[in-house]
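Hi L.,

As promised, RloB-like protein:
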Amino acid sequence: MPTTFGIIAEGPTDQTVIQNILIGVFNNEDLNTNIRFIQPAFDKTTYAANSGGWTNVFEYIKSDRLIQAFEHNDYIIIQVDSDVCDQVHFDVRKTDVNGLKLSGEILIQKIIDRFHQLILEYHGEEKLVQMLPRLVFAICVQELECWLLPIYYTDKKASTTNNCVHRLNEKLDKHFIDKSNKSGMTHAYYKISKPYQKHKNIIAKYQLQPSLQHFVNQLLQIQA
């Protein structure tokens, strides 16, 4: 049976970028039919979605819908941006006890630990142990747009995690990113990230963004 992936993400733009990455990593255009956008619920034909945001990701993780998602998918991908992690109820600090900024690697692990904590609290240790081998974390430092910079930059900007939306817009002609305009954004993100559907592209570029590398390394352990 084909491997199936369910994506729990902040929004439909994040889901569609992850979809393109999955297709590229596994070098399988047909994988598209095995990728399910489960939070927010998303209609790929109309590029319309229900509500998103990190708070809805948390609510989904805490609910019985997570249990149901594992019943219908081989792997569950959880995506959030780290720029929101210090907000109330997310509760992951970006600095250490001395006020120094955490490295991306440490921050990613702290966010993953936060999700483990949520699953343990709301579903119990047995469920957490069962889920762990089938959980894949897409923790974007600082935001998912940073993952797209290697497509459009060949210099040190490809690895930056600052002002990523602005840097993308400097390179884009027809598909400017405007987060205040939700209409059509998912289709735009699909086009912007489509080069990652090519296996050679994603493999050549994913290590330029450490948090993208963390995500792809998890995928490379899966035989889809």
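Residues 104-123 form the longest helix (20 residues).

Thanks again for sending the construct details.

K.
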